[in-house]
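Researcher: Re-running this chain for the archive, since the previous output was lost when a drive failed. Same request as before.
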Amino acid sequence: MPELPEVETVLRELRAALEGQTLRRVIVRRDSLRWPIPKGFASRTERRKVVSLRRRGKYILIRLDSDDSILLHLGMSGRIRIMRAEAMDFVRHEHVVLETDGGLHIGFVDPRRFGALDLMPTTDEDMHPLLAKIGLEPLGPDFTTTRLAALLRGRKGPIKTVLLDQRLIAGLGNIYVCEALFRAGIHPEIRACDVAADAVVRLAAVIPVILEDAIAAGGSSLRDYARTDGKSGGFQDLHQVYGREHEACPDCPGQPLCAGIRRIVQAGRSTFYCPQRQHPAS
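Model: Regenerated structure tokens:
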């Protein structure tokens, strides 16, 4: 599933295409994705001007001049494609289309239909059931060492699974938690409450850096994710541990005690780490 960097990449490309534009035509080709699409979605969004866009966790919010907001979630296989209307070609599973006065065709393609579209008053965005319990934004000004330490305090679950809890930190997923723990030198199985204070400082510093680096590279394309022009992201080529089981650790060149990157399973998800760099006692 796309994580924060992939969603942020799509958001920025959508913002460039949509902000200030009027939705000339809205086409809804099926009445549900993961959940039903609101009745009258097309009639309530057509001929409305897009005022602004924002991201909350892994969700995109498109604000209209009608004081309504479109909520968009890519799900597992969803992607957005943006192209000139005159160059538009047919693709399967393009369930919803936004056409702008500026001549752009913006399609929501979702073969597995685990994505979502909803419509709500803009003033109610943060109260939406999918958003109301989302945690701290890791790229926001409130993401500090102090706040992170407070979130970890008293939590006895493994640090890896705690960081994946969207009720605590919004948007972090498996790839970037693995990469962050590696850079911070923290073993993924250590209890969150037992992470040393200096390690929390390192973790709070590296999480935003990794996310920004991934956004700059257009996100990670491993299976379904693609940018709005159909191109793949590039950060998968920069992964230091994720998906690199049995490869040499990039931080332990030539060290005889390092056996390379290992993979374990935590909460049903693969965790990649270096046992030498991420020693439980470190």
